[in-house]
Each structure stands twice: as structure tokens, then as C-alpha cells.
Amino acid sequence: MSKGSDQPVTAPNGEQAPMVYPAKEKRGRARASDSVLAAAGMRVTARYSGAADDLRLADEMLAQARTKQLPSTRTEIGAGGELIDREKVGSHLVDTVAHPDYVTAEASSDRLALANQAGSLSLALDAADTFQAQDSLEKMIVHQMAALHYGMMRATALMNKEFDAAGGTAINAAGDKRDLTAGEREAANVRACRLAGAISRMSATCQQGLLTLQRKRTGGNQQVTVKHIHQQVNVTEGGQAVVAGDKVTSGENER
Questions:
Q1: How far apart are CA 150 and CA 254, in angstroms?
Q2: Residue 64 zone, left/alpha/beta (φ > 0; ψ -120 to 50; rest)
Q3: 3-state SS of the chain: helix, strand, coil percent to 5?
Q4: How many degrees, rounded to 5, is the angle at CA 193 between CA 187 and CA 196?
Q5: CA-CA to 136 of 20 to 30 Å: which in 113, 175, 201, 243?
Q6: Three-class SS of 118-167
Q7: How confident is the model over 141-177, as pLDDT tens digits?
Q8: How confident is residue 218, by pLDDT bands cut at 50, 70 and 90?
Q9: DSSP state, residue 171
Q10: What predicted TM-score, i.e. pTM, was given to this entire model?
Q11: Is pLDDT of 21 > 80?
């Protein structure tokens, strides 16, 4: 809304522009989480001061952060079920919730930024698409699994180099080989074993993430289907068959 007026401010594209609040600015735009924190602080202050205007403004800030009426530039779903924020230059990714609010959109942007910092953004988005992550919790678990996989494979490459060094030779940056001393070989072997332990733990944690996702979707219940098969056995004259441990014989002397 414009200052001193109850009329909403209109953006150039004809849609209602986001309200601007005294929240912490980051990269030139107020974050929804900052508005939520500011609103909570104003509520606490207003309870002691009794300032009705502060309570009203806090309610407006919280309502704006949680509004479902986002501009069309911030509601397009992209790779990995994340929201595409067209308002950000160079960004083409965003969230999977059908009716997101500003907090949801900001959380999506944070997930993408963190996955990118971990070096596993592409892995995370591909895994989320493959698993068809249905909500934010599933996306976070899938992103963690992708980061673990990325780190595990990098650690495996380092482990292989250390095992090569433990064998007695090492290759420097120029590509030249040199023989290592007994102490250097032993140190390389120790580092390789430590990396192997870390890789094993990361692998187990990654697989545990899959089990967690399965339990989340199934409610932790295991469904077992028992199928009864009726079997009919025909024994001709002079023949025999074993059914459930009993010997059945057919012939002239059968009683």
C-alpha cells in the first residue's frame, strides 16, 4: 500500500506489488523471513506499550509474508519442483507447493542456494525430479542425499589417490612420478583408511535417507499380501504324487 493511503500499489505488469516493510534488506529486496521476525518483535513490543498501530502493522506484515497471491513472476515451477523467481536476474529455478506464499518461495530459493554452495545443485534437482518430492521435507532430505553422494564420490577419488601413494608411487602436479619413502607410504595408507571410513558412513547415511522417505510415505507400515493358490492334482491309474507331504497312489489296490 502507498504511504498514507489504503489503496494497493500497482506494479508495471498490472499486478499488485509486494508491500515494503522495515525488514532487513538482502540483495536489494526484503526477505519474507525478515518480515516475519520483525512482525513478531513488534507484537512483543506492542503488548507492553499497548500501541494498536504496531499490532496492526505487525498483522499486515505477517499477512503479506503468508499471502498466497504471489505475482506470476514468482509462481512458475521449474526443475526439481522448485519455484522459478523471474524477478531475480539470472535465476530460473523456484518451489513445488501448488499455492506458495512468500515464505515458501524464499525457502525454495534458500534450498537452491545451499545446494549450489554444496556443489550438488544439479544432483539435487535431478534426484528431486526422480523421486517426485511432494513437499519441502522430502526436498530437503533428497537434497541432503545428493550432497552426501557428491561428497562421497569426491572422497572416493581422493581415497584412490592415497591408495596409489600407499603402493609406493605418487604423481605430482606436473604429471611426474616419484617413489615415496616408507613413512610417506604409511601416512598415505592411514589417510586412505580414514577416507574409506568416512565414505562408508556417508553411504550408510544416504541409504538411511531413502528409508526415511519410504517410511514418511508409507507411515512406517509394511503391507504384506498373502495369496492363496488352490492346486488340484490328478493321479492316473498306477501313478503317484506327493501333496503336502502325503503320498497319494492310484491303482487297482487303492482303497
A1: 72
A2: alpha
A3: 50, 10, 40
A4: 145
A5: 201
A6: CCCHHHHHHHHHHHCCCCHHHHHHHHHHHHHHHHHHHHHHHHHHHHHHHC
A7: 999 999 999 999 999 999 999 998 888 777 766 777 7
A8: confident
A9: E
A10: 0.55
A11: no
Residue 252 is given by DSSP the state: T
What's the rounded Cα separation, in Å, for the pair 140 and 136?
6
Amino acid (1-letter code) at residue 29: R
Sign of CA dihedral 91, 84, 81, 136: positive
By the 10 Å C-beta count (0-12 exposed, 13-18 middle, 19+ buried), 96 is classed as: buried
Burial of 136 per CB tally in 10 Å (0-12, 13-18, 19+): middle
**Three-class secondary structure assignment of 75-124:** CEECHHHCEECCCCCCCCCCCCCCCCCHHHHHHHHHHHHHHHHCCCHHHH
Return the C-alpha torsion angle 68, 71, 76, 80, nearest 10.
-60
Instruction: Give tens-digit pLDDT for 86-143.
Output: 555 343 333 344 556 667 777 877 888 898 889 998 898 889 889 988 888 999 999 9
Q: Given the C-alpha cell 506492542, which residue does it identify?
A: 46
Of the candidates 189, 195, 193, 188, the one whose C-alpha atom is nearest the C-alpha of residue 151 is: 195
